[in-house]
Fold this sequence. Notes:
By secondary structure, the protein is mainly alpha-helical. It is built from 9 helices and no strands.
Amino acid sequence: MIEYWRENYPIMLIEMGQHAEMVFAALAIAIVVTIILVLVFLHRRNWLNGLVYFFSLLYSVPSFALFALLLPVTGLGMRTAIIVLAVYCEYVLLRSFITGIQGVNPTMVEVARGMGMTNRQVFMKVQLPLAVPAIFSGIQVALASAMGIATIATTINAGGLGELLFEGLQTQKVTPILWGTVLTIVLTLTSAAILKLVEWALDHRWRRVLTAKEA
């Protein structure tokens, strides 16, 4: 394995970067879309339930099939991969956002409205910050899921660590498969650790602001 790394590490690092680019771009798009959907349909529970059901159906579609369905529209490459990954992330994120926001103490919401906040302000300044643990839990799951699915994106010329896995399968060599697996795990764990730090920072900041207001 060491010899393979010495010979191929520049290409492997490029593929690792492509993998990260796909996953992070898809995750960012999915988070923005989720925030918009929840903000728009927050007080229309039937609509939210319908959206969750719709994305759950898309989530059940095999990734190969979704890639194939999009190819005539978006073509080969990373763009198609990012769209597919964002769709798969959307179901997980939507459920976690809804669960987190609905779990916020109604008293806090009523107090915020009593202070004259609009629905948008209540959502952005009260419900969203208080739902941080549940939201980041969903983001962690979506991240891990997207990391795995992104390896299949190599079949549509999107690059990524899937190149190593398919190289190993085609040549019947274990070393590329092992490196592809190891690098995917390393990238996932590193990204998860960064997310944990961001969650801690946001939660700490919110608690500090809340304590200052109570004082």
